[in-house]
Design a protein that fits this description.
The chain has 252 residues and is α/β, with parallel strands linked by helices. It folds into 2 domains: 136 residues, Cobalt-precorrin-4 Transmethylase, domain 1, CATH 3.40.1010.10; 107 residues, Methyltransferase, Cobalt-precorrin-4 Transmethylase, Domain 2 (2-Layer Sandwich), CATH 3.30.950.10. It is built from 7 helices and 10 strands. Helix 3 packs across helix 4. The protein is globular and about 60 Å long.
């Protein structure tokens, strides 16, 4: 029997790891660390730093994460094919390095519940016949870090807010029925397609890391600066992770 624990590590700040997360890493017989290529070596380095501080005697195995072919087919088909490939990489590493069963841990950026595919990938392993139990240790999400960094609430008093992606914001425009929209996975700065009047933005990149960048203000005045900052930061580091909150200045 294999026991897989998905450990939310937030943005990689060891000070924000929960005692439960540290315990799960220390108890694991095998810890898998995905490698996403040289341009994202910083992410692997952060995981290595966490393990150096928190891990026990479990074996640490690094493996190459398959790349997603964005332009090969429709978006959801491409994502599903990628998930199949990642599940295969997990299976190969687990079978090779823990053939007799035991406790496997994977460190998940942010939290496994929010725009992360680790739970779906684990489901593929079980659907493929692997005898696998799955446990989740929650982590700090990028939305929590964004709100904390700007010292703001995510919602207005008594009002809902919506979490969506840059892809959906660009395709659908402003969602109906809400005045606050949190946007993730936006590689194209979809806010540029919105009428900027009466919108305020709170933006953050590399949240919780030494290179953290924050900007906030009226979208009409701050949007262009964020686009330029984002492009420069991505060119400098080779990768970027960012998130933002948009809010109508006048509730409707």
């Amino acid at each position: 029997m294999l026991a897989l624990t998905l450990v939310g590590i937030g943005a990689g700040d060891p000070g924000l790891l929960s005692p439960r997360a540290i315990g799960a890493l220390r108890d694991a017989d095998l810890i898998l660390v995905p490698l996403k290529g040289p341009e994202k070596a910083d992410l692997a380095d952060i995981r290595r730093k966490i393990l150096a501080d928190a891990a026990g005697d479990g074996r640490v195995v690094e493996f190459d994460l398959p790349h997603r072919a964005d332009d090969a087919c429709a978006y959801l088909d491409g994502v599903n094919d990628w998930h199949d490939a990642v599940a295969g990489a997990w299976r190969e590493a687990i079978v090779r390095h823990l053939p007799g069963g035991g406790r496997v841990a994977l460190m998940i950026w942010g939290d496994p519940s929010l725009y992360d595919s680790s739970l779906r990938i684990a489901g593929r392993l079980r659907a493929g016949g692997m005898d696998l139990s799955v446990t989740v240790v929650p982590g700090i999400t990028s939305l929590q870090l964004l709100a904390a960094a700007h010292a703001i609430p995510l919602n207005r008093l008594g009002a809902p807010f919506l979490v969506t992606t840059g892809r959906r914001l660009a395709a659908d425009g402003w969602p109906a029925g809400v005045d606050s929209v949190a946007v993730m996975l936006d590689g194209a700065c979809a806010f540029q397609g919105l009428p900027p009047d009466d919108l305020t933005i709170w933006w953050g990149a590399y949240l919780g890391m030494p290179q953290q960048i924050l900007r906030a203000g009226a979208l009409a005045e701050t949007g262009a600066e964020i686009v330029a900052l984002r492009a420069a930061a991505r060119a400098r580091h080779g990768w970027i992770m960012d998130v933002y909150l948009l809010r109508r200045t006048s509730p409707r």
